[in-house]
Design goal:
By secondary structure, this protein is α+β, with helices and mostly antiparallel strands. About 65% of the residues lie in helices and about 5% in strands. The strands form two sheets. It has a four-stranded mixed sheet. This is Autophagy protein ATG17-like domain-containing protein. GO terms for molecular function: molecular adaptor activity; protein kinase binding.
Length: about 525
């Protein structure tokens, strides 16, 4: 399998067996070979998808020579280190070879001279062919660098979209929070704690297991004391203090600062001047044309070499010294052409090398920019999540304070509702039981009468004249309803209602009285 180091433009052939291993294991192998720590490796596939370290390498359709896994080294990019200059493997043009060609051109027209020139032509062709193969690999690496860059840009775009979505969600949540912020401040200024502290808690409302596990300072405890016993780690005052600090901290100015940072970061990520390398496609097209030109030049070198070699064989077979003069003159012209082509191929090699080095330098700067932007977005996204969690926690505390604000009135309403339901339950069960008894008597009487008549007519031939006489009476309300409201607080709370009315003056007290309405006993509400 193949891994391509984008910023250096270097292909790393890896063991094919690694495709069956995890991505994490592949990263470890890369670390041991390239000395790039696992934490600083970023692996992308074509299209910009980031490879998950926990997945298997074979789960991604990449890793071939034509479609490698793209490797980026964050430690080199973060330290602003420029990638090393690409080594040609050929150095500069061989001056010793040029000198040998010059000497061969000055030799007399002998068969030995012909053999020497054959060797030089063959050597130049093979050497130039190796340079062409090397240049072909350079061009392939340039195209892979471009594709690796496009993968990095696609990954940045995906990261930007995710960050933008997170920023919009934070903006929406914070805007909704700001709409309610003034109301929350008003809530905190109310004297609800004093009201709750004056409101006694009816003993019958406290579950037995709870009253046994919690010790109160006196027999008659207040609703406020009971609430504090529920919040063991903090008091109501501490919750209110936390809310005040939170409301003061998360204000409009704070929101504007966060929005400014987010907007600036998105503008930086959407910088088209950095995301697009100007005229890169044109440069690669020109380089591809240069490669084709190199191939044509090498083909000419091959033709000249074969021609010189063929002429030498003919001269050797004929053993005729008279043709050596014309043959050597022809060889001189071809050697001069091959030398000129050889020098030009080296010129093309230097252009390929310069293009590769130039693109590597550009990519290093651009990839460093992408790394910086993505790290900034990651850090900012963590901040947004932190702020969102804090706002969520603040809202939970504010909702608790809202419940505390509603507690006195709701408490008294609930006590009233208990009394109303107790009264209603007794009346309803008494009424429904009476109705059930009447319905049951009627049902049994009617059923017996129908059965008695059916026994007579069913045996007589007249039953065919009277259809529908077999219907049975439907059972309606023949069973009394089961007891309900059995889990309501016990009746002894009634004995404690008077102290509640006496102590609470600022809360509307609702007293339940009973009245008869259309013959049915119903609750009556009197507000005092």
């Amino acid at each position: 399998m193949s891994v391509f180091l984008v910023d250096e433009g270097k292909m790393l052939p890896m063991d094919l067996n690694l495709t069956t291993k995890s991505v994490e294991y592949l990263k470890e192998k890369i670390a041991s070979r390239m000395h790039i720590p696992v934490a600083n490796q970023v692996l992308l596939v074509n299209g910009g998808e980031s490879i998950d370290s926990q997945e298997s390498v074979c789960s991604y359709s990449s890793g071939t020579d034509s479609d490698p896994i793209y490797l980026f080294s964050n430690n080199l990019l973060e330290e602003d280190e420029r990638p090393p200059i690409t080594a040609t493997g050929f150095g500069t043009i061989d001056k010793n070879l040029l000198s040998k060609i010059e000497d061969a051109l000055c030799l007399p027209a002998t068969y030995k001279t012909v053999v020497n020139r054959v060797y030089l032509s063959q050597y130049m062709y093979e050497h130039d062919n190796c340079i062409y193969k090397y240049c072909k690999n350079l061009v392939n690496e340039l195209h892979l660098q471009q594709r690796g860059w496009l993968a990095a840009v696609a990954n940045l775009k995906a990261t930007t979209q995710y960050f933008n979505k997170s920023a919009r969600k934070f903006k929406e949540n914070y805007t909704n929070y700001l709409k309610s912020r003034k109301d929350w401040f008003k809530l905190l200024t109310n004297q609800d704690i004093k009201e709750m502290d004056r409101l006694p808690l009816l003993p019958g409302l406290i579950p037995k297991y709870e009253s046994e596990n919690i010790s109160f300072p006196s027999e008659n405890i207040s609703l406020y004391q009971w609430l504090n016993s529920q919040e063991k780690n903090r008091s109501v005052e501490q919750i209110a203090e936390f809310c005040v600090k939170g409301l003061e901290h998360y204000n409009v100015k704070f929101f504007q600062t966060v929005q400014s940072e987010t907007s600036n970061l998105l503008d930086k990520a959407n910088n088209a001047n950095m995301a697009v390398i100007t005229r890169l496609d044109e440069q690669l097209k020109t380089i591809t044309e240069m490669l084709q030109e190199s191939k044509d030049k090498v083909e000419r070198q091959k033709h000249h070499s074969k021609t010189i070699q063929s002429n030498a064989q003919c001269a050797g077979n004929e053993k005729n010294a008279s043709i050596l003069v014309d043959l050597c003159a022809n060889h001189e012209e071809q050697l001069l052409l091959m030398r000129k082509t050889h020098e030009y191929i080296y010129t093309l090699l230097n252009k390929f090398h310069d293009s590769k080095d130039q693109l590597s330098q550009i990519l290093h700067i651009r990839l460093a920019w992408i790394t910086s932007v993505q790290k900034s977005m990651c850090a900012m996204n963590s901040k947004l999540n932190y702020y969102s969690d804090n706002l969520k926690r603040l809202r939970c505390h504010l909702e608790l304070l809202k419940q505390i604000h509603e507690a006195p009135e709701l408490y008294m309403t609930a006590v009233t509702e208990v009394l109303r339901r107790k009264a209603f339950t007794n009346v309803f069960l008494e009424w429904s039981t009476s109705i059930s008894k009447q319905a049951s008597d009627l049902y049994e009487k009617e059923t017996m009468q129908r059965k008695a008549f059916a026994d007579k007519i069913n045996k007589h031939f007249l039953h065919t004249l009277f259809q529908g006489m077999d219907d049975n009476l439907p059972a309606f309300a023949v069973e009394p309803p089961k007891p309900f409201d059995t889990k309501l607080p016990p009746p002894r709370v009634l004995n404690n209602l008077q102290p509640v009315e006496a102590k609470v003056q600022t809360v509307a007290i609702v007293r339940v009285m009973l009245m008869t309405y259309n013959g049915v006993l119903m609750p009556k509400y009197l507000v005092i």
